[in-house]
Amino acid sequence: MVPVQVSKGPVNVIKILQKAGGFAVFIRLIKSTQEDIQVFSQLNDSRDGVTIFAPTDGAFSAIIKSGVLNSLSDHQKIELVQFHIIPKILTTANFQTVSNPITTLAGSGSRFALDVITTENMVNVTSGLTNTSVSAIVYTDSQLAIYQVDKVLLPLDIFAPKSLAPAPSPPKPKKDDGADTPVVPKDISGAVSCVMLNTMLISGVIIVAAAFPL
Which Gene Ontology CC terms are recorded (predicted)? Predict the structure, then answer.
């Protein structure tokens, strides 16, 4: 695909995609989520530029037929579009040196991980759930790069089930501080018997001595 050439002036992502053709679903999502305003602001207020991975209409067919796309909330649709937008420009040469994972407008971290891997003349893009490649350059200039991808990039945060929180451990039995701890009596019967026996022996000696004086 030959990159689209637009007239000088403010860059309009919607017009670029419309002129290229084949991106009707992505255009509709961008407009409904108002991410075109976000991109316009990024291009005019920042020198970092913007990179967009634009899925074709064919790329959306699977999640449209299954009803997945329509089941997403408004917030999830925003995140889905933002996951395809990088808040800096990446040229084809940058793909070879970029640090993974790439931060998108949707955020960063493991739930929004997006990696770009180059192999010879191919640029692969993976989200953990989607593995696709850049099939064409739609548009490029010093501030904006739009690349065609043939699969929708599905972020883990939306399409992978979140791990359940561990079940709380059962409560420990409470100790009743007010209850007296039973005291086990010591066995002192042997000591008592010994004392009594000694006393009798001593008494016996005294009695014998008294009966038979020296």
Answer: plasma membrane; side of membrane
Q: How far is CA 151 from CA 26, 50, 200, in A?
A: 12, 20, 106
Residue 110: strand, helix, or coil: helix
Using DSSP's 3-state secondary structure scheme, residue 1 falls into: coil
CA separation for the pair 202, 210 (Å, rounded): 12
pLDDT digits (tens, 9 = 90+) for 35-49: 999 999 888 888 899
Residues 11 and 49: their CA atoms lie apart, in Å, by 11
User: From the CB of residue 171, how many other CB atoms can be counted at a distance below 10 Å?
Assistant: 6
Euclidean distance between CA atoms 129 and 45, whole angstroms: 33
Element holding 75 (H helix, E strand) = helix 74-82
pTM over 0.85: no
Torsion of CA 193, 196, 197, 199, to 10 degrees: 160
pLDDT, tens digit (0-9, with 9 covering 90-100), for 87-130: 999 999 999 999 999 999 998 878 889 999 998 889 999 998 99
List C-alpha distances in Å: 190 to 18, 137, 186, 200: 106, 101, 11, 16
